[in-house]
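Our collaborator T.R. sent over the components below with a one-line note: 'Predict the complex.' Nothing else. No constraints on interfaces, no templates requested, no preferences about which chain binds where. So this is a plain run: every listed entity goes in together, and whatever single assembly comes back becomes the starting point for the next discussion.
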Amino acid sequence: MELLNDINAEHESKAQPTKDTLGNTWFSKAKFLFAGLAGLVVWYVVYRQLLSFSQYFTYNILGLTPESHLGEAVEFFVYDTPKVLMLLTLVVFGVGIIRTFFTPERTRALLAGKRESAGNVLAAMLGIVTPFCSCSAVPLFLGFVTAGVPLGVTFSFLISAPMVNEIAVVLLYGLLGWKVAALYLGTGLLVAIVAGWVIGRLGMEKHMEDWVLELRANGAAVVEEHLTWSDRIKQGGVAVKDIVGKVWIYVIAGIAVGAAIHGYVPENFMASIMGKDAWWSVPAAVLVGIPMYSNAAGIVPVIYALLGKGAALGTVLAFMMSVIALSLPEMVILRKVLKPQLIATFIGVVGIGILLVGYLFNLII
Amino acid sequence: MNILVLGPGCPKCTEAEKNVKTALQEAGVEASVEKISDFQEIAQMGVFSTPAVVIDGEIKCVGKVPSKSEVIDWVNL
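Returned assembly:
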């Protein structure tokens, strides 16, 4: 018992790692690793059963006729709802753990002193893993600027952080397959990198509010946190509770709509309005998307419904990017640090980037 | 004791303020709690991720909502 107390005490203070504590952390790491692997195996086994379960449930338990409208809709719903929720839980948990390694302060330090181009690429990547919400955009912006991060690099981060997020990618993967998810991830990063680089080239520094330029901060306040692996795993759990707890209702509603479409609506319903041949549909999708504000969980099911009715992939991706990346509330907040010219440039450059992505996909797919 | 809660007013910042207030009540500690939502003021303190909590000039946490028990630990020192 005394030994156990000792171990605990050492584990908590862990100021000077001695051989003993190193042994202990190794042991606890191994323990977490095994628990994690076991969890993954269980997850995978359940996941693999979903399709046969949904068929058994629909046709044997409910007794619906295979290939009937109702049967197809019900099977689709019973299959996709747990599938997407399971994927979402796994990825949000994983990303939640990864995010404990990245704080805005650390990202700021990583980007300070980076040149453009390489800096743009790094900033866009860090945008995926750094914890971020649109209300912290301004403090973060100030932090980057005072650390000497070039304006264009800062924008690469600000564009990628909301646009390329794990929920969007998981939902696209779950509902539309890995190709669409990869396309979205890749082009989202590309838009963030290129748009940030262009904004940097335009030399817009003087269009920040004057007090921002005068701001001199002596480095960021950092509260050092020593996280153990159990802390990080707990944070992953918190992320699951936070995010999955908030978005599950949108996911289910979206899949229900998708299921109805899958079973009942004739194909090519949307083809004339949002199809490849309607050249004006891409700019229209971007323009409509700017004032709309929704998170990824709300928008992907809509995308899914549109695609199911024959809308073109490029048009739909452009619409989704525009809704998530360019939001009115974020512009209103950024107005506190940016003059209107710079905000207009920001919207313009990102909008054009999204437009090109839309046309590109309509052209090649 | 003077406590500042820094944050522009998003749900997380409101939650941080609420946690600080309940923690004070539970710990039975008297303190003034002030909410700072001006970006300029926040940035001048060197805080670049919100919410943040400052107690008597010392920054206690940045970029996360402190739990009630964390706040109780800070005010009881």
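Summary for T.R.: Residues 2-71 of chain B form a domain with the Glutaredoxin fold (CATH 3.40.30.10).
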